[in-house]
Write a structure and sequence with these properties.
heterodimer; A: mainly alpha; MetI-like fold; B: 8-stranded mixed beta sheet; 4-stranded antiparallel beta sheet
Chain lengths: 330, 326
């Protein structure tokens, strides 16, 4: 019975994922194919005057731009399923290689800031909730409201001005020092380059988790079962540990894992500001340069990424809350 | 059961004697809530005014009153679970010593425990056995908990279940188990029988009797006077934040001739098995208590004196009453 329900769950989610990927690729393809950017022109770039109309027609023919949109999509789909994701027009290398390289730097950036935002946000929320109504609570709340209304790119610019331009503590951009061979770059250098973009992303992510955690804790501290736990003689940290944390962590967990999409969106902006060569920067360039294969590849990968985040939130919810776990089978 | 009562309370009146130290005693307790209004003006809303009560070991004292009489706040006041804007007056004694906030902090859960009103009081994310074991101080918590589960008729498997998997009846048994598992000498049952059917009600009453049999003092807060009469040794009638009568169970008989306060008599006569005549009017809400005796606007015996002065609690034929004309 248990095995059966698990396999049913997996089948259901895989089916959902396939449908989602199909819909997203269709939509992105439709949007790109109607965009005003001419892929040939984007490809040739400044050399436009030196390329004859015949040569341009040849390129278009070679890329299959004359075929119907449906055929183009089907052709892309078939090769994508075979594992051939095409060649990036801007980088002139296979899409899979570009994504693999970019995803690594992005993953470091997003992972670090995601973890920081979660941990700091959760504890800020707990502190504010435990000290509800005090100046500490009000400070934390004010800070969170301010952050929640701060755009990531603006905060990035501020940090950049302060720490890189005025103080000179951190590099102005990129993920490694310019003009250095990749194999010579030390871990410290990489971390120094990672610091500001990660800080920007995590600071913005803190607000959501902190405010929701605080709200939930206040609600729980006011609940019947906490009153009863107090009547049973439990108090302070022990009370929080035994009865608070599990209950309080629910919104933080679901919010934070479901925020993979926001983190990704934030990364696009932060990478742009800090010229950090991650996936976010690549997707902007692919969009502006009409690089369809790369754009589609990144879009599908990020879809998968966000989907996994939501699925993890779902799973963890079941692990923490027995009502979700057992309620489904019963 | 009745022979046990006699062991502890031999004769009427003796339990009020000054000689022995009662387990729990409340004297002139008052409770109000401070509200800040416009222009920072303070305004205290009085909820409990003159509360007097004594509970001895092994005794069940029922606190009976209609909703809004302030009786449910009493449990919070005794356990120190009031919000910060509460102002508490009067004195509470536990085993003869004043119950200070510090002492209360130590005694809560050890010497005093609550049976809450709602099954919502169980932590939704913790299996029931662990919630019971939390109050057990001895070495083998599991053995004690299993023993108590057997006593209240809970299957041992119920210990692994979460509150949402338990039926209402089973949850109530878990709540009773927590009180039984603790070493508390005073148990405060805060409206433990809301809207229960007859069978479930009897079960809760049995739990309370069992706890008293173990020698614990029981404060049974309820609005159900018939339930109170079934098990209590003494009834404290609560009206508009005041104890208006402390009566023995035996006083509730016939047409209520032995009862001292007109409100208690009216309450008794309003029961279906008695005359079934309701009392006109309604209890004043907190903050709008009338001057003088709180009951005078509805009282058939009221005179000018009742409008001007709050009567003191005085001893009348083995009980206590707050009325000039008892």
């Amino acid at each position: 019975m248990r095995m059966q329900s698990i396999s049913l769950w997996i089948v259901k989610h895989v089916f959902k994922l396939i449908l989602l990927l199909l819909a997203v690729s269709l939509l992105s393809f439709a949007l790109i194919s109607y965009s005003p950017i001419d892929p040939v022109q984007a490809y040739v770039g400044a050399d436009m005057t030196r390329v004859s109309p015949e040569q341009r027609a040849n390129i278009a023919e070679y890329w299959g731009l004359n075929e119907s949109k449906t055929e183009q999509f089907l052709a892309w789909g078939k090769s994508f399923l075979r594992g051939e994701w095409g060649t990036s027009l801007i980088y002139r290398t296979p899409v899979a290689d570009v994504i693999a390289e970019r995803f690594q730097s992005s993953l470091a950036l997003m992972g670090v800031s995601w973890l920081l935002a979660g941990v700091i946000g959760f504890w800020l929320g707990i502190v504010a909730g435990m000290r509800q109504g005090t100046w500490l609570d009000k400070m934390i709340q004010a800070y969170c409201f301010m952050l929640a209304s701060t755009p990531a790119f603006w905060l990035g610019l501020l940090l950049l001005t302060l720490f890189s331009v005025w103080l000179g503590w951190f590099p102005v951009g990129l993920s490694t020092p310019a003009g250095m061979n990749a194999e010579n770059v030390t871990l410290v250098e990489r971390l120094r380059h990672l610091f500001l973009p990660a800080l920007t992303l995590s600071i913005v992510g803190v607000a959501n988790v902190a405010l929701h955690t605080r709200q939930k804790l206040v609600e729980i501290l006011d609940s019947e079962f906490i009153r009863f736990a107090k009547a049973k003689g439990e108090h302070g940290l022990r009370l929080l540990w035994r009865h608070g944390l599990r209950n309080v962590s629910l919104p933080a967990v679901s919010l934070h894992f479901a925020s993979f999409g926001e983190i990704f969106g934030g990364a696009v902006l932060a990478e742009q500001v800090f010229s950090y060569p991650g996936l976010g920067q690549a997707v902007v360039q692919a969009g502006l340069g009409g690089d369809v294969p790369l754009l589609l590849g990144i879009v599908l990968l990020s879809t998968l990424f966000v989907f996994i985040g939501n699925m993890l939130a779902d799973l963890l919810y079941k692990v923490i809350d027995p009502r979700m776990r057992k309620g489904e089978n019963g | 059961m009745s022979h046990l009562k006699r062991n502890i309370v031999t004769e009427d009146g003796e339990r009020f004697s000054a000689g022995d130290v009662p387990l729990f005693k409340v004297e002139g307790l008052s409770l109000s809530f401070r509200r800040f209004q416009k222009r920072m003006r303070e305004n205290d809303v009085c909820v409990i005014r003159n509360m007097d009560l004594t509970i001895n070991a092994g005794e069940i004292v029922a606190i009976v009153g209609a909703s809004g009489s302030g009786k449910s706040l009493l449990a919070n006041a005794v356990l120190g679970l009031l919000p910060k804007n509460a102002v508490l007056g009067g004195s509470i004694y536990f085993q003869g010593e004043v119950l200070t906030p510090e002492r209360l902090h130590q005694l809560r859960g050890k010497e005093m425990i609550l049976i809450p009103q709602s099954v919502q009081a169980l932590d939704p994310l913790m299996p029931s056995a662990r919630q019971v074991q939390a109050v057990i101080r001895s070495e083998d918590k599991q053995a004690v908990q299993r023993d108590i589960f057997a006593k209240v008729g809970l299957p041992q498997e119920a210990g692994d279940l979460y509150p949402f998997e338990l039926s209402g009846g089973m949850s109530r048994r878990v709540l009773a188990s927590i009180a039984m598992a603790s070493q508390a000498k005073l148990v405060i049952a805060d409206e433990p029988t809301p809207g229960l059917d007859e069978k479930a009600l009897q079960e809760v009453l049995e739990h309370i009797k069992l706890l008293a049999k173990q020698g614990r003092g029981m404060m049974f807060i309820t609005h159900d006077i018939s339930a109170a009469l079934q098990i209590a040794d003494q009834i404290a009638v609560f009206y508009a934040g005041e104890t208006i009568e402390l009566a023995n169970v035996q006083d509730f008989e016939g047409r209520g001739g032995k009862l001292r306060h007109p409100y208690t008599r009216a309450l008794w006569r309003s029961l279906p098995q008695n005359d079934f005549v309701p009392l006109a009017g309604s209890q004043p809400v907190a903050g709008e208590y009338p001057s003088g005796c709180a009951f005078h606007p509805r009282c058939p015996l009221a005179t000018e004196l009742c409008q001007q002065q709050i009567p003191e609690l005085r001893q009348v034929s083995g009980g206590w009453v707050r009325c000039f004309y008892a």
